[in-house]
Amino acid sequence: MVQFGHDFKEKYYSLLDKDVTLVNHGSYGTTSTMVMEELKKVCELEENYPDAFYLIKAKERYVAQIKALSDYIGLDSKNLALVPNATMGINTVLRSVPWDFEKDSVLVHTTSYGACSNTVKFLHDYYGLKFDTTNNVYPMEDDDVLKNFEEKLATGKHKLCMFDMISSMPGVMLPYEKLITLCKKYNVLSLIDGAHAIGMVDLKFIDELQPDFLTTNLHKWMSVPKSCAMLYVNPKHHSTIQTNPISWSYIPNDIKEGSDEVADTVMIDKFWYLGTVSYAPMLCVEEAIKFRKEICGGEKVIRNYQVQLRKEAIKLVIEQFGPGAELLENTRGTLNVPGMFNISFPVEEKYVPVVKYLIDNFHEWRKFKADCEGIMVAKDKSFAPFLVHNNKIYVRFSVFIINEASDYTKSAKSIKVRLEEALEEKYQTLYGVGGKLQNLNID
Ligand SMILES: Cc1ncc(COP(=O)(O)O)c(C=O)c1O
Questions:
Q1: Where along the chain do its domains lie?
Q2: The pTM of the whole model exceeds 0.70
Q3: Which of helix, strand or coil describes residue 230?
Q4: pLDDT tens digit string along 288-333?
Q5: Which one of 23, 126, 351, 382 has the lowest number of neighbouring Cβ atoms within 10 Å?
Q6: Atom 10 of ligand 1 has which residue's CA nearest to it?
Q7: CATH of segment(s) 6-19+298-440
Q8: Is 27 in the pocket of ligand 1 (CB under 6 A)?
Q9: Which of 168, 220, 396 has most ligand 1 atoms within 8 Å of CB, for mutation?
Q10: Nearest atom in ligand 1 to 219's CA
């Protein structure tokens, strides 16, 4: 029986600063030492004889990673590629759909990840691609999420719908299987941002439901070194998908499925080499799977630990944040995921107008957030991201196999102090002598 927690962290995550209390695994992931050692070996191999590496070994090794990954998650390997990250996965798809910019439109949601919705905005600003947004305001029932999407999809205006499996901020689950079905019902392409998915949820549904496109980060929860993500492309798009950047493997998209160019290996042929960069992180997928299988005991064991610890962690954070703190959850309990949870941060009466001011002045909110988060990172060595959603501040915590319950008491305590200090400072600037709001006589 594997004993996860702090001893496990010390043994298998020895590169982590010992003074850091890591409760933000969700943002960047963290990689076990054993996999980092493999990364070093691959880098050395690249440098040992670059010609041999790029001309002979790299493709062979890439194919082995795809095979190991598809076996591990139970998907058909011919639809999978590796890309540097989820942002690249989304860009790859959005920049290879053969758009008719005169009429095509994309549907996203208000909680879509900024980098990904910005890709849609870029296509809008530069080429005139239209887009529309559904409003996700949590806590929200799945039925309401689906209803909002369906209202927009039923208009027949949208060619593609981009939605998350697990959103970033707040860290909540969407009813992704039903959203795929809805997209099919209205003949809309589905592009799924599953950045947080692998390592947290089972992905077998992909081959069963066959969405159009899906990307998921392997460097977040799967212990693959940064930068590595998986891109799934439905076989019907193998001929049109193009790499980002366009590279040697470009095949014009007038080639139809079934022709010689669109063979079973087209995803490998297109994606294995996109110019000279280090492919070392991608070539560590096998080692990361070995770590999760052999050292951790497999996906179920890992998830079970996260789910149990998460329950305890929620109680401890609520205790620290004090009266008014609540878990972000809907009545059916479908929002939460094994490795993340969001707790509302209760704000003293005196600071309510400060929060309102920050919500209304987005650039000030961003500065407030960056300053406060910077202090948490540097001074407390314990950081959890926070956001304003539905007029409340929520802090998002991550739960991983290196954590123990005491991490949440410790981090919640310091986060509370830092947030309150920052709110007091802002209060003084706004309401103190010469303060902006006092002068304007606004309260
Ligand atoms: C929902 C979601 N999409 C996309 C990304 C982007 O991931 P990356 O920075 O690895 O491209 C993230 C990162 O946290 C995310 O949470």
A1: 6-19+298-440, 35-289
A2: yes
A3: strand
A4: 999 999 999 999 999 999 999 999 999 999 999 999 999 999 999 9
A5: 126
A6: 85
A7: 3.90.1150.10
A8: yes
A9: 168
A10: 10
